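Hi U.,

Before I forget, here's the chain from the pilot set. I'm dumping it here mostly so it's searchable later in email.
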Amino acid sequence: MGPSRVFELNRIQRPEDGGILMCIRLRPTSMARVVAVCGMPGSGKGEFANVLFENNIPVLSMGDMVRAEVTRLELKETPGIFGEIAAQLRVEHGEDVLAVRLADAVDTHLESHSIVLIEGMRGTAERVVFEQRWGEKFSSLAVVASPDTRFTRIQNRGRSEDGDRQAFETRDTRERGWGLEEIIAESDFLIDNNVNLEMFRSSCFTWLKSFTNQE
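Structure:
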């Protein structure tokens, strides 16, 4: 990924001033574009996706593909099983398996939408697939939050794949092994989510408005 230019939206304050930091690394875009959102577990990827979906952006979830595989295999939904199946798929079919399987569906949505969101990119191999498939039409966005904030949210959301603090840390370690921290650090866009839900959703909408208006 080449050099990038960073700017902050003028009306957004820095976190230390009680506001939201939104960093955007600009890159050339064309009419039909693909955005992949990434972030550590509990960072707020799903809520970002909700905001875009509410604004008529189609959302394809990589996590839903793993959940569908668990259902297909008729496995009991436990905190560890989703990670185990995700890891198994990568071992058996390659680190990029979910990205490869999802790409055609994204192209289908691009026929009738100017922006498509991929929710839950988790590794460098997946990013390579997307960059090779869509080139400059592809951008990545990272949602970031502190570990304590993320764990609290995970405890409150009640998904079957969530567990205790040990399970949370195990999941963090597994996803780091796929290159998640690297793609977060190298993302084209960054939204801080160490804030309340209302402020975060406002930040997501502001990003979407800015992104949509890019030529």
